[in-house]
Amino acid sequence: MHIDSMDSPSENDGMELYTDQLDPTFVNSRREAVIIFCAWLVALCWCVPFCYLNGYDVADPENISITLGMPSWVVWGIAMPWIAADVFTVWFCFFYMKNDDLGVSPEELAAIAAEGN
Amino acid sequence: MTMQSTELILLAAGSNAALITFLLYTLAVFGIAAFSNQMLKGKSFLSEYFLGSRGLGVWAFALTFAATSASGGSFTGFPSKIYSHGWVLALWIGAYVVVPICTMGLLGKRINQVARISGSITVPDVLRDRFESARFGLMAVVLIVFFMVFNLVAQFKAGAMILKTLLSDVEIFHRAAEFFHTVMEPWSFLGTDSEYLICLLAFGIAVIIYTTYGGFHAVVWTDVMQGIVMVVGVLIMLPLAIMMINDLAAKDASSDASGMSYVTQEMSKLVPPVPTEAQLQVNSPAATDRLIATGTWISTESAEGTLRLFRTGNDAEIVAGQQVTAVDAPIKLIELVNASDIKQVLENPSSYTVVRDLQLVGLKQTPYKYGGSPEHKGTYVTGPGPSPDSDIGFLPLSLAFSFFFMWAISGAGQPSSHVRLMAFKNTDTLKKAIFTVAIYYTLIYFPLVMIFCCSRLLMPGMEMESDRIMPAMAVFLTEGVGMGWLAGLLVAAPFAAVMSTVDSFLLMISSAVVRDIYQRNINPYASEAKIKKMTYTVTIIVGTAAMLGAVNPPQFLQDIIVYTGSGLAACFLAPTVFMLYWPRSNKEGCMTGMLCGFAAHFSMYFLGVFTNGSFFKPHRFIDMDPIIVGLFVSFLATYIGCLISPAPPLRLVKKYFYKRKELQRT
């Protein structure tokens, strides 16, 4: 077993292969991750408090307000945000997210080389 | 004819369809496995077998991701919860508004890139290569195997239980069960439920064979098929449920509402049934043994002369010459207390037969702790929802917050999702797949809430066997509109959901053993033929071991699934996020975070033994689910661990965070 064989690599192996510029795929991915996290936070801050304030401890539940056949707090607290989130997803995927190059894996390189031969 | 006998008739009508569906289904997955095996030829075996050569297109990637995430819980546990707790389940599942974009978008592009840079084909591979630490890779392997083996056993049980429900009225199945029962008698470790054992063997052997033979591509393409079955099943059930509700509303002179409005109005008047324990008594000693089956409706009169309606939750027997059931084994029942539910049962003698010659003695009733008293009205249409055992209701505010973390954030931390994120072809595939999964989840989860709110009115009294509500409702709806043949397709959806999860987990465990332990630590120079042989052998052994573990399965099925799912997220999410997005992250910090996440999450469950009397009733710190504690501790420990330990080698930072120089052509 050579558990530790990879734990002591040479410090500067392959440094000359890289520029001083951050990888654009990394930069774009990080920015997109922040946006997604914010979207989750917005959804959390809307759905849970809205449903809690309007759907819990309802004074007269037998006459609960109904919208589109469902309790109104479900419609405005979950169903509409769901549609909004889908619209956001469309915008994010097709208008915001960058088409970054993900690189070529070693086995893909080997396959390309094999084809070349 | 009891409600149970009605169900039997309905199930019998749909049973052949169920059997045919299952057989067609099995044939289809074997066909896919054979096709996938052909694809292995001429490619790097490990990369193709465990990762599909990173070539997944939009539909394959989207549906395998969605189907793997939607385990059996989506089609058994979730409908059962909707039936039991009402509209508040819309909030319980509310985080799914952002689950697709969170679970695929937060890490997807970057983990795929890092896996390509390092040439990794498994999750432990990525962690090991990213930090060049074999120890880290092994730690990840141990945790994945630990959690997934337990989960696999639980999922095998879920698959067998669903198949048992599907085939519950197939004559040949019962004959086979009787034969098995005699065979099993000398082998006590096989238990006594021969029907369950047959289903476990059929389900287990099918999954093990097609997963072993076809590898990742077989898993992915069966997931695609299973994903389509799931969404088609839901989309057919919704209009059928509303049609049946409209029929019900038309007979109700007291309301002019229809469709979902009628459902919500009626649900607002409902109160939960009363859980009851009693002995059953007949007027005169029985001449022969009398079996009172689970689901039998019993009507009695109170001292004031009013009618009371009960439904049994387990089998009971009055032996010949006796008048009552055994004293030491009280029968579990529920008493319906809503006039509309009682009316639905009594006014439909063609559907429900009520036994009237039984009395209940030694009656002991324990109303719901929340929702069972007059001050909690309308609990099925408001939060926190009725609960038989919690006096703060089913979904208090703290748990609603927890589930928003649980589904969206901890979903992003599942290694089984990470593997799929490493397998898509390019960014364009990721973008289209996120959109596809978003629409897919919208079409599944919210309609499920609507369908099973309808089931509350259509099928009263299912509380004690609510896990069966999905297949029971499927048969009820299709028979109700004269399309019994559809039942087979609808009841296949939960089966498909479990199958798609089990095959993925099986492959993850075998990849952890073959790639991460054997090839990378024991024999890096093993020939491809040897690796191939070992992969097939390990997949069969792991699958068989999990199947044997499920012969006498652990009791807490759903609890094990929750524990392992949240535990994996507590271990893997923080280290993965830091390794992908923070150049300063290092192996010491990420390993610390992984261990601390495990310890914090585990300690909440362990504390539950002392505070709540069971490991699977975890201690809830400020009423939060253990996942919150696990994630918080894991993120904090990773961050602090990275800061107080040496900076990572510049070479690694450059490799994973900086742009590579263009190679000049000569």
Structure description:
The complex is a heterodimer of chains A (117) and B (666). By secondary structure, chain A is mainly α. Helices cover 58% and strands 8% of the residues of chain A. Chain A contains three helices and three strands; from the N terminus they run βαββαα. A two-stranded antiparallel ribbon of chain A has the order 2-3. The longest helix of chain A has 32 residues. Chain A is elongated and about 75 Å long. In chain B, the strands form two sheets. In chain B, strands 7-3-4-6-1-8 form a six-stranded mixed beta sheet. In chain B, strands 2-5 form a two-stranded antiparallel sheet. In chain B, helix 7 packs antiparallel against helix 17. Chain B starts with a helix and ends in a 6-residue tail after the last strand. Chains A and B meet through strand 1, helix 1, strand 3, helix 2 and helix 3 of A and helix 7, helix 8, helix 10, helix 13 and helix 15 of B. Strand 1 of chain A pairs antiparallel with strand 9 of chain B.
Entry keywords:
A: 117 residues, mainly alpha, elongated, B: 666 residues, alpha+beta, 24 helices, 9 strands, disordered N terminus
List the helices and strands and how they pair.
The complex is a heterodimer of chains A (117) and B (666).
Chain A (H helix, E strand, L loop, with lengths): L17 E5 L1 H32 L10 E2 L2 E2 H25 L9 H11 L1
Antiparallel strand pairs in A: 2-3
Chain B lengths: L2 H38 L4 H7 L6 H12 L2 H4 L1 H9 L3 H4 L6 H7 L2 H11 L4 H9 L2 H33 L4 H14 L9 H58 L7 H11 L4 E9 L7 E3 L4 E5 L5 E6 L3 E3 L12 E6 L2 H8 L7 E2 L2 E8 L31 H13 L5 H7 L5 H32 L10 H12 L6 H36 L5 H22 L7 H25 L5 H25 L14 H19 L5 H8 E3 L6
Parallel strand pairs in B: 3-7
Antiparallel strand pairs in B: 1-6, 1-8, 2-5, 3-4, 4-6
Please tally the β strands of chain A and state the result. 3
Radius of gyration based on Cα positions of chain A: 25 Å
Low-confidence stretches of chain B: 1-14
Biggest sheet descriptor of chain B: 6 strands, mixed
Strand order of the largest sheet of chain B: 7-3-4-6-1-8
| Order of neighbouring strands in the sheet with most strands of chain A | 2-3
Biggest interface and residues each: A-B, 84 and 85 residues
